[in-house]
TrEMBL record:
GO molecular function annotation: hydrolase activity
Keyword line: Hydrolase
Stored Pfam families: Hydrolase
InterPro entries assigned: HAD-like_sf, HAD-SF_hydro_IA, HAD_sf, PGP-like_dom2
Gene3D superfamilies: HAD superfamily/HAD-like, Putative phosphatase, domain 2
Organism: Nocardia puris
NCBIfam families: HAD-SF-IA-v3 (TIGR01509)
Top-rank taxon: Bacteria
Protein name (record): HAD superfamily hydrolase (TIGR01509 family)
Record has Hydrolase as a keyword: yes
Signal peptide: none
Length: 223
């Protein structure tokens, strides 16, 4: 039986919004506060990671002891700094607004599925517009964030659709792994780092020119 496209599930940072650059400022400042040196390898490993996982990756990469107090203080620093940086309009990724309009006009269900915590996601929604999304799922609202499938499974459940009838749109290896593990079809539009090709992944250079036919083709590309 051929899967029917029912919903599009969008990542936020690096996919719809050019906000990874804001996170880059914050995590590099945090690395300085912690007395470590941020390498490109550590920074790349952080892209797409959920809050708790990102802090563990950062502390391990910097060689800094990850005591509970240190992790808590680092998390508070990041939330304050990213909140400051996200105040005001955030730049869109190329073609993202047209892509959201396309999905809305096609009458498809639409969800924002991000590893970013709810308090910070609200800044992103201020730019994106809440009317585009039927629901949103954040990293602090599921048992495990991406690369676990939990955020995508929760989004599909809230929408009342089968994940096999959903197309996820992602920019990072972490998010791509989560969408695939949930059973979603996948369109990958890399932003800050490359995403390796894999069976069932449809790669695009940008969201510019995206059509419903492209979304439907992603369902057939899945193996």
């Amino acid at each position: 039986m051929t899967a029917r496209l029912a919903a599009v599930l969008w990542d936020m940072d690096g996919t719809l919004l050019d906000s990874e650059k804001l996170w880059d400022v914050a995590v590099r400042e945090l690395a300085v506060e912690l007395g470590g040196v941020m390498t490109d390898a550590v920074r790349h490993a952080l892209i797409g990671a959920s809050g708790p996982n990102a802090l563990r990756i950062l502390f391990d990469g910097l060689g800094v002891p990850s005591t509970p107090d240190a992790l808590r203080e680092a998390g508070e620093f990041l939330e304050r700094r990213v909140s400051d940086l996200m105040t005001g309009p955030i730049p869109w990724r190329p073609g993202a607004k047209d892509a959201l309009n396309l999905v809305r006009d096609a009458g498809l269900a639409c969800a924002l599925v991000t590893n970013t915590k709810r308090s910070l996601t609200e800044f992103g929604l201020d730019t994106l517009g809440r009317d585009y999304f039927d629901i949103s799922v954040c990293g602090d609202e599921v048992p495990e964030g991406k690369p676990a499938p939990d955020p995508y499974l929760r989004a599909a459940s809230l929408l009342g659709v089968d994940p096999a009838h959903c197309v996820a749109v992602e920019d990072s290896p972490t998010g791509s792994a989560a969408a695939a593990a949930a059973g979603c079809a996948l369109i990958v539009v890399p932003c800050e780092i490359p995403v390796p090709p894999a069976p069932g992944r449809v790669h695009r250079d940008s969201l510019v020119g995206l059509t419903v036919a492209h979304l439907e083709e992603a369902l057939f590309a899945r193996v």
